[in-house]
């Protein structure tokens, strides 16, 4: 295949995927499947081999991410139901004080973005922020913007679906992805809060339904402090990082063998879920909600991201089989486009076109993994670049955009300036920092 034909095939397949999601309103799962079959036909795959290759690519990816995404979802549900999210946010707001309340909300949202989906965080924090807006006089546009800090870690730090998909596709251990994702999140957080502060005096309405609303407390809730609220989030992160560290610095020791088990992502997240349940709930062993309803909800919440991620693996299988990625990569190198920009730009274009961070990262990973050697970038650099590229920018095709606008009672223009603006700023900050790390030789 010529490079021109490869470009045409990839452009048609990815363009059709974007068209189906953004214009025809197909679900991302169906759109990915159709795009994968189209790509398989265009690259000349024998039709009798297509079903088996789809299943193989799907299964190889699914086995790496399915349970991790499910356990991350379950941990987020437990933290939500026990009131740990509200408690942690309230403590951080009190710590930072009235004048720096946006920093408190931003830091809280950023931490919560590790195990909890951003839309859930918006649902929980907007009523709190509405009352804070009334008490402090800070515009709801600023609060709506700073809540988007959850998207930073949700895009960069496992176990949320996007980064899990990217790390799995690139063969990057989560023990490496997590700390580096946290490091790159920091400039994004700082930029997001500074941008949000620039909106603090703009006029915006308040949602009267949330003013002085009493929190609906579950009868299973127990009083807890900040450490009890945040501990189940920190514990699995520490275990996963320790597992990676012991394999490097203490290989073949008994402690390394123990950490290989308890620090594996599955074990660490399972321990985190148990820690959240036993520390934050009364009568957990007899509580049918956590034994049945919450687990069922976690399965439902995780199903979509798992299928999107796994179908990204199917798409990658056909790209690899046709050597399309190598041809494309060599063409890019010959055009003297720095390799670090390729995953960033691919992810950015898909994110803007479809509104889906998970789809952007999963597709970018499928396209870029076979290119890495030719592009001259490491799997870590590729991971951070495509996750940063999946951050900007949220607009009319994003469900999270409309959720935040409707709950905050912002019109489209206000939402675009607040939510769209902050996601663009934080994405640029994370992208620039990733490029600096790359050229400094650190990733």
Kindly describe this structure.
- This protein has 443 residues and is mostly helical.
- Helix content is 75%, strand content 0%.
- It has helices spanning 3-22, 28-42, 50-81, 84-96, 101-112, 118-136, 140-146, 149-156, 161-170, 174-197, 226-249, 254-262, 265-280, 288-321, 324-334, 341-354, 357-368, 372-375, 379-389, 399-408, 412-439.
- The longest helix has 34 residues, at 288-321.
- The relative contact order is 0.15.
Number of helical segments with 4 or more residues:
21
Q: In what range is the share of β-strand residues? A: under 5%
Let me know the largest β-sheet.
Answer: none
Radius of gyration: 22 Å
Structural class: mainly alpha
Labels describing this entry:
443 residues, mainly alpha, 75% helix, globular
Map the helices and strands:
Layout: H1 3-22, H2 28-42, H3 50-81, H4 84-96, H5 101-112, H6 118-136, H7 140-146, H8 149-156, H9 161-170, H10 174-197, H11 226-249, H12 254-262, H13 265-280, H14 288-321, H15 324-334, H16 341-354, H17 357-368, H18 372-375, H19 379-389, H20 399-408, H21 412-439
């Amino acid at each position: 295949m010529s490079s021109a034909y490869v470009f045409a095939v990839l452009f048609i397949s990815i363009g059709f995927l974007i068209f189906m999601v953004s214009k025809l309103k197909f679900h991302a799962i169906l759109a990915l499947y159709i795009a994968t079959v189209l790509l398989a036909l265009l690259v000349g795959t024998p039709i009798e081999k297509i079903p088996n290759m789809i299943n193989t690519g799907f299964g190889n990816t699914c086995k790496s991410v399915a349970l991790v995404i499910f356990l991350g979802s379950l941990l987020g549900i437990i933290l939500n139901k026990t009131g740990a999210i509200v408690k942690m946010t309230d403590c951080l707001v009190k710590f930072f004080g009235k004048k720096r309340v946006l920093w408190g909300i931003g830091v809280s949202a950023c931490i919560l973005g590790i195990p909890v989906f951003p839309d859930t965080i918006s649902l929980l924090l907007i009523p709190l922020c509405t009352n804070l807006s009334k008490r402090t006089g800070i515009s709801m546009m600023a609060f709506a913007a700073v809540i988007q800090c959850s998207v930073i870690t949700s895009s960069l730090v496992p176990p949320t679906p996007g980064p899990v998909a990217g790390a799995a596709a690139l063969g990057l251990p989560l023990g490496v992805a997590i700390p580096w994702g946290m490091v790159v999140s920091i400039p994004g957080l700082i930029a997001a809060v500074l941008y949000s502060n620039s909106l603090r005096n703009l006029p915006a309405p308040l949602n009267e339904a949330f003013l002085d609303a009493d929190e609906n407390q579950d009868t299973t809730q127990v009083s807890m402090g900040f450490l009890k609220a945040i501990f189940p989030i920190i514990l699995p992160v520490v275990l996963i990082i320790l597992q990676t560290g012991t394999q490097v610095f203490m290989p073949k020791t008994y402690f390394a063998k123990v950490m290989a088990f308890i620090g594996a992502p599955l074990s660490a997240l399972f321990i985190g879920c148990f820690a959240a349940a036993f520390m934050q709930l009364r009568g957990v062993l007899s509580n049918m909600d956590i034994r049945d309803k919450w687990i069922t909800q976690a399965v439902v919440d995780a199903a979509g991201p798992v299928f999107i991620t796994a179908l990204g693996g199917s798409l990658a299988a056909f790209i690899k089989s046709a050597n399309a990625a190598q041809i494309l990569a060599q063409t890019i190198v010959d055009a003297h486009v720095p390799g670090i920009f390729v995953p960033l730009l691919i992810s950015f274009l898909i994110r803007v076109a479809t509104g889906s961070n998970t789809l952007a990262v999963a597709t970018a990973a499928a396209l870029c993994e076979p290119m890495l050697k030719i592009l001259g970038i490491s799997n870590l650099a590729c991971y951070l670049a495509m996750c940063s590229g999946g951050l900007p920018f949220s607009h009319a095709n994003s469900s999270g955009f409309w959720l935040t606008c409707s709950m905050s009672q912002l019109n489209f223009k206000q939402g675009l300036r607040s939510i769209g603006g902050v996601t663009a700023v934080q994405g640029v900050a994370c992208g620039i920092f990733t490029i600096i790390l790359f050229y400094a030789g650190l990733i």
